């Protein structure tokens, strides 16, 4: 029995998007005409900048670290492969919230102790002041926790993308005299990026949502601003409706942008294949 292509491939009208757009328009009208919703939106939106900052910085660092882990996991060195596998399996088994608490209340104090111990001669000489735990920003503790947590997942995405590259192209690059680094930079990585773009985009969207966990540390992100207002006004329904609305604006718009990028890349590949065939 032949499988039919998905609706998006057949060019069907995106009714889900129309329904989501209608809901977004309805809430936008409520925010515009209702003083309560307007007030809540004005307060909650102050945390959007922190949410975006945490997501962008955390995801960038996690992507770079994840790529490094993927390369280590595919290296010829047994020690590097085992270190990468150990890291990935351990970190993937720890919930992000638990990791957040561990980094914030165990990792940060441990780092401060280690720093002060290493800098003891300079501290005793009066050249620098000893570091205190409160000197380590809660915002950066949260970013580091998200970076550590997501790097394990992203490394597996990179590993799968790298392994998907045709071995024949790598052999051809070797025959042309390209070094290992040149093969990775010019042959493997560009093709792997096209393959991993959808799952990488999913991880980015997931981090936008998981960035709400930083509110447990009191970081003034979108969720924290909503939580503070709701606890003071007892307007839980209205407040969290606005919070959910803003998160949906961020995630759905990003999802649509990623889909458009995927279609553009697919179209470019088809045109390139047709040109080569011609």
* Biggest sheet architecture: none
Question: In what range is the share of β-strand residues?
Answer: under 5%
Question: How far apart, in Å, are the first and last alpha carbons?
Answer: 34 Å
Give the name of the CATH superfamily of the domain at 49-219.
Answer: MetI-like
Brief description of this entry?
The protein is mainly α and 278 residues long.
Protein architecture, described:
The protein is mainly alpha-helical. It has a domain at 49-219: MetI-like (MetI-like fold, Orthogonal Bundle). It is built from twelve helices and no strands. The protein has helices at 7-10, 15-33, 35-44, 48-73, 78-92, 96-118, 120-124, 138-163, 167-175, 180-210, 222-233, 236-277. It is flat and about 70 Å long.
List key phrases describing it.
single chain; 278 residues; mainly alpha; 80% helix
Topology, pairings included?
Layout: H1 7-10, H2 15-33, H3 35-44, H4 48-73, H5 78-92, H6 96-118, H7 120-124, H8 138-163, H9 167-175, H10 180-210, H11 222-233, H12 236-277
């Amino acid at each position: 029995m032949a499988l039919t292509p998905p609706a998006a491939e057949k060019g069907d009208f995106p009714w889900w998007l129309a329904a989501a757009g209608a809901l977004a328009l309805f809430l936008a009208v409520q925010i515009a005409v209702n003083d309560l919703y307007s007030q809540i939106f004005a307060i909650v939106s102050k945390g959007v900048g922190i949410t975006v900052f945490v997501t962008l910085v955390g995801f960038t660092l996690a992507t770079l670290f994840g790529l490094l882990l993927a390369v280590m996991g595919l290296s010829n060195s047994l020690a590097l492969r085992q270190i990468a596998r150990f890291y990935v399996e351990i970190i993937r088994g720890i919930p992000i919230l638990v990791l957040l608490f561990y980094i914030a209340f165990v990792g940060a104090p441990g780092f401060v102790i280690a720093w002060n111990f290493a800098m003891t001669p300079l501290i005793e000489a009066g050249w620098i002041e000893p570091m205190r735990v409160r000197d380590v920003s809660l915002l950066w503790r949260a970013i580091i926790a998200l970076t550590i947590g997501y790097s394990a997942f992203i490394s597996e995405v990179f590993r799968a993308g790298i392994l998907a590259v045709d071995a024949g192209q790598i052999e051809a690059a070797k025959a042309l005299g390209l070094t290992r680094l040149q093969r990775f930079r010019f042959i493997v990585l560009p093709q792997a990026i096209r393959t991993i773009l959808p799952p990488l985009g999913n991880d980015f969207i997931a981090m936008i949502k998981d960035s709400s966990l930083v509110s447990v540390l009191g970081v003034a992100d979108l969720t924290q601003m909503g939580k503070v207002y709701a606890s003071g006004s007892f307007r839980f329904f209205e407040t969290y409706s606005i919070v959910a609305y803003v998160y949906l604006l961020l995630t759905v718009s990003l999802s649509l942008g990623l889909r458009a990028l995927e279609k553009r890349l697919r179209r470019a590949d088809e045109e390139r294949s047709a040109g080569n065939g011609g």
